[in-house]
Design goal:
The protein is an alpha/beta fold and 445 residues long. The protein contains ten helices and 22 strands. Strands 7-21-22-20-19-16-17-18 form an eight-stranded mixed beta sheet, with helices on both faces. A six-stranded mixed beta sheet has the order 1-5-6-4-3-2, with no helix packed on it. The longest helix is centred in the N-terminal third of the chain and has 18 residues. Bound molecules: S-adenosylmethionine.
Length: 445
């Protein structure tokens, strides 16, 4: 140690955060009451809530109190005393560690019942289930996910590419991903080799993968601006792996810059080919998209004029436009550009596009006059301000699409309090084996 350092004040010793004492030491016997909203079994012992991983309602087991968690404790299973029916062999080697899937340990019937019940309980708590027809859950099969974002981390010479571990900032290096489209899984090994060469030690980037009809897109988010040699390597990668497009952006939310554009990167909505911007919103599976389109068409059948709010790049707009004149309203510039390009392919006036922030400036009840039906599909936060205006409107039929049952329940309550009747609700599962659930619902006046 140099003389100068001797006089430096030493940092105070690091104090480990205090861990609360569990109510009891040593194993306790518990019975799992039900599987909760995050996929863990819920049990109780000594007046405390226990979260039992990979368990089913009715499982009886010996567990230790583990880490404290929210309003309870993680349970560390020791012995399974009684196994409830409904268990299945998880199809993925990463299950249990990977944060992507919560419930691969259930057989299919148990899974569908659990996920449907999450929705039913949320709606029932808001007093919305009485007299409502619950339709069967729309499914996405394994391999059906057409978009996912993985994390790439370079440490030393090694590169990890995959998802975060469950309840952790650590990361797993994925060897397989049975939910994801095989064409995207096939990119994981080549991307790992590419990024191991390309990234500096300690660097992390998000790797957003999307499968379009004309091939995959890779968007690297958080990449420092690539210079000519890196651009050449990336363009060669796009060529070797037959990508439709390869882009980069400096940070989440920053504009994406194209590196290689070998094909447009397109999807067909209705009969209209649409080219979403890199990283733009796209329903996570074709099957999910089909169920949502079906719901939108059914709920708006016979309407000559339809408003499609939070329209994105036109997933619902263009199928609706095959039968009705549509006003598509969207807040972001890039999807608005995709909507406008699609609208130009149709007879003039069939689709009108408006860019508008529907949180701050919802369509008013007055502006909604003349629409015979309406569809709204907001982000996770829901559409509180728009729902207030809808509740005051006279639009006869409203189809709600939602990726968050909790914000849907709040907005649905507003509509019902305004005199609408919730006729049916359909759970739509685009995120297989996760707790995430989408839905479509029809309200009428
Ligand atoms: C769940 S996506 C649905 C998009 C489209 N309906 C689809 O199925 O592809 C929600 C959309 O709402 C848009 N959005 C988010 N906040 C908004 C706001 N305050 N006003 C208008 N649009 C907004 C997003 O840009 C996104 O396109």
């Amino acid at each position: 140690m140099s003389g100068g350092n001797r006089h430096k004040r030493r940092p105070p010793p690091r104090r480990e955060p205090e861990r609360p004492e569990p109510p009891v030491r040593g194993p306790v016997e518990v019975t799992v009451e039900r599987v909760g909203a995050k996929g863990d079994g819920l049990a109780s012992s000594h007046g405390a809530r226990l979260y039992v991983p990979q368990s089913l309602a009715g499982d009886r087991l010996m567990v230790n109190f583990g880490q404290p968690r929210a309003d309870g404790w993680e349970a560390e299973p020791v012995t399974l005393l009684h196994e409830a029916p409904g268990r299945a062999e998880p199809p993925c080697v990463h299950f249990g560690v990977c944060g992507g899937c919560a419930v691969q340990h259930m057989d299919d019937a148990t899974y569908v019942a659990w996920k449907t019940d999450l929705l039913v309980q949320t709606l029932a708590r808001a007093g919305l289930m009485e007299g409502v027809a619950l339709r069967p859950m729309a499914r996405t099969p394994p391999g059906g996910r057409r978009r996912a974002t993985m994390l790439a981390t370079k440490r030393g010479r090694r590169l990890w590419l995959g998802y975060n571990e469950r309840a952790s900032h650590r990361q797993i290096d994925v060897a397989m991903c049975p939910i994801l489209a095989p064409a995207l899984v096939a990119l994981v090994a080549p991307l790992r080799a590419l990024l191991a060469d390309l990234l500096a030690d300690g660097r992390q980037v998000d790797v957003a993968l999307t499968l379009f009809e004309d091939g995959p897109e890779v968007l690297l988010i958080g990449l420092p601006e690539p210079k000519l040699p890196q651009l050449e390597i990336l363009a060669a990668f796009a060529e070797a792996n037959d990508l439709a497009r390869l882009s980069w952006s400096a940070a989440p939310g920053k504009p994406a810059e194209p590196i290689a554009r070998r094909r447009p990167g397109m999807v067909t909505f209705g009969s209209v080919p649409v080219v979403p911007a890199p990283g733009a919103f796209l329903q996570a599976s074709r099957e999910g998209e089909a169920a949502l389109v079906e719901a939108a068409l059914e709920g708006t059948a016979g309407a000559a004029t339809v408003a499609d709010l939070f329209a994105g790049s036109g997933t619902l707009t263009f199928p609706l436009a095959e039968r009705s004149k549509v006003l598509a309203v969207e807040g972001d510039a890039e999807p608005v550009a995709a909507l406008e390009a699609g609208a130009r392919r149709l007879p003039a006036g069939q689709v009108r596009v408006q860019r508008r922030d529907l949180f701050r400036d919802p369509l008013t009840a007055d502006e909604l006059k003349g629409f015979q039906a309406l569809v709204f599909d907001p982000p996770r936060a829901g559409a509180a301000a728009q729902a207030q205006e809808l509740a005051r409107s006279a639009v006869p039929a409203i189809v709600a699409v939602s990726c968050n049952p909790a914000s849907f329940a709040r907005d649905a309550r507003t509509l019902v309090d305004g005199g609408y009747r919730l006729e049916w609700v359909r759970p739509v599962d685009q995120f297989l084996w996760s707790p995430h659930l989408e839905l479509a619902a029809l309200f009428r006046r």
